Amino acid sequence: MKMTRIWGVLLLAGMAACKSVQPAATPVAQSTKLIPHGAGWAALWQQQSGEYKALCLQAYQLAALRLDQYLAQKGAKPLAVVTDIDETVLDNSPYSVHQALNDRGYDEKSWSEWTAKAAADTVPGAPNFFKYAASKGVQVFYITNRSESERAATLKNLQRYNFPFADDQHLMLKTTTSGKEGRRQQVLQQFDIVMLFGDNLSDFSNIFDKKPYQERNAAALKSAPEYGSRFIVLPNPMYGDWEGAIYNFQYKLTDHQKDSIMQSVLKNY
């Protein structure tokens, strides 16, 4: 792990150097709209690019190497890995496409209609990794912000691809809060969590929860040694807290208001 720490220091130094030469944000023409069609464009990349598949395979293949290292160490508790579901093990890009083509963004009703189909495909590399972890005696916990009403369909979707530990005990849904720290702590009572998987930084630590985007980005840089070690990050340009943080999680703003805020932080020339 010494090399990981050294790499983290070098990475932070490099990022700091790059950060100092970034151009200032320049307003974009107000006739340009980013919402909701941006998610559709991102979904196109997710569905059709080899680069997306390569990034996911890279993440999970690295995770298998790391898991072998953790398995070689002796611990007081049995081992577990914790994973998010959406855009981490299941691919929901058809939902983003459907909404964008109908000139709509996310809403709870349409999302529930989509998840009820239990039709999401898998993220490349995910089934193989989690089956490998289970074969080594490592338990898998699925911590997701899907609601209790989505439990049966979520389990059906996971079981369709034979994901291990796809049962009520290991599926931890959203209850009173979207923050996942409380659920992670429940797992830690009986297990050592050796790795966490997600597409959203809040899947890894509460230091990222509901922070303005500037603080969130700073916390991401400070956490550099964890990436590829304990934190395995999957790509998701379609949605996430990265977007909400830009408009301070004011989800009730109109699309026009959100669009204006997003355009105000874009870097142009």
Secondary structure category: alpha/beta
Helical fraction: 40-55%
Number of DSSP strands? 7
Placed side by side, the strands forming the largest sheet appear as: 5-4-1-6-7
Q: What is CATH's topology name?
A: Rossmann fold
Radius of gyration, in angstroms, nearest whole number: 19 Å
The end-to-end span amounts to: 41 Å
CATH class: Alpha Beta
Number of helices: 11
CATH architecture: 3-Layer(aba) Sandwich
Low-confidence parts, pLDDT < 50 over ≥5 residues?
Answer: 6-13, 15-23
Overall geometry comes to globular
**How would you describe the oligomerization state of the chains in this entry?**
single chain
The overall pLDDT average reads 90
Fraction of residues in β-strands: 5-15%
Give the helices and strands as they follow along the chain. Answer: HHHEEHHEHEHEHEHEHH
Major sheet summary line: 5 strands, parallel
Task: Please characterize this protein's 3D structure.
- The strands form 2 sheets. A 5-stranded parallel β-sheet has the order 5-4-1-6-7, sandwiched between helices.
- The radius of gyration is 19 Å and the shape is globular.
- It has a single domain, classed as HAD superfamily/HAD-like (Rossmann fold).
- The protein has 269 residues and is of the alpha/beta class.
- Mean pLDDT is 90; it is low at 6-13 and 15-23.
- It is built from 11 helices and 7 strands.
- Helix 2 (37-48) crosses helix 3 (50-71) and helix 2 runs antiparallel to helix 4 (93-101).
